[in-house]
Amino acid sequence: MSHETSYPIGTKGIKWGDNEKQQWLAAQSKQRDFFSDVLPQIQTLAMGDVFELETYGELNYLQTYPLHALKTKHWQQDKPSVLITGGVHGYETSGVQGALRFARLTAADYQARFNLVIIPCVSPWGYETINRWNPKALDPNRSFFEGSGCEESELLMAYLKQYPDGFWVHFDLHETTDSDSSEFRPALAARDAIEIDHDMTPDGFYTVGDSENPQFDFQKAVIDAVRQVTPITQADEAGEIIGCPITQEGVINYPMTKLSLCGGLTNAQYSTTTEVYPDNPDITADECNRAQVAAVCGGLDYLIRGVTL
């Protein structure tokens, strides 16, 4: 169902131009600090036994944000490679902190089996301003294509080209928050002069697979691991989650590459986009972070058990 939008920027029925985008940018403010919350964790991990630090670019938005990857030190070409991305949408906190928690507490358990690359925070400006978009009012998670103009996405794409053999597995860690309905969907409707459903925030954890490569059993393994930590999203009366039919409990599928989503970036054989719901008052931030870790471990454990490596 579509809803009228009354977003305070722009004129209904007219797409935003540069003036409206500048108004939107002027309304954003720093609410937390990437340089104290996130960067020291990345640097500490790079000084340990598991990871080395690779800097793949920087963003210059009034201040300079370095873009870092954590890569396992003992890289072997005969091992399958795993990519974990967090903070593609910077406001989705457990995507960032969950990736860091996995790197800190659990990655060592898997380094003998897999090469690991972890990008903890794709969008540091979005992290600081608790935002879905970048300063150009572009959504990084709809911008993974050449010429998108979204630096967060383009720099990550350029970095990953150094891995010619690609990635066998990709976990893209996200959240679905109440602010999706209260702020980000209304802003999108205003920016693009469209009408969209603003009331699509499900309670619980779910995953988004690739409709072109759904990997039913892999997704189920992720869900089964996460249900030990936090509740799984149940379908609505129409059998849907966020307007999309479920394929099994807690799982929907999107055409990842067609939509230029991060989850389709690598064309990995096994890929999942996690969605944590952090706004349930009974769910803690720690639980959200642990759910992200459980998702990664559940997927990797499934591959170790059931697939010849």
From TrEMBL:
Alphabetized UniProt keyword annotations: Hydrolase, Metal-binding, Zinc
Cofactor needs: Zn(2+)
Q: Where is the Peptidase M14 domain?
A: 31-309
- Offer one example of a GO biological process linked to this entry: proteolysis
Per the record, the domain of life is Bacteria
Q: Which InterPro entries match?
A: AstE_AspA_cat, Peptidase_M14
Q: Which Pfam families does the UniProt record give?
A: AstE_AspA_cat
* GO molecular-function terms, A-Z: hydrolase activity, acting on ester bonds; metallocarboxypeptidase activity; zinc ion binding
Provide the family line.
Answer: Belongs to the peptidase M14 family.
Write down what this protein is called: Peptidase
Which organism is the protein's source? Leucothrix pacifica
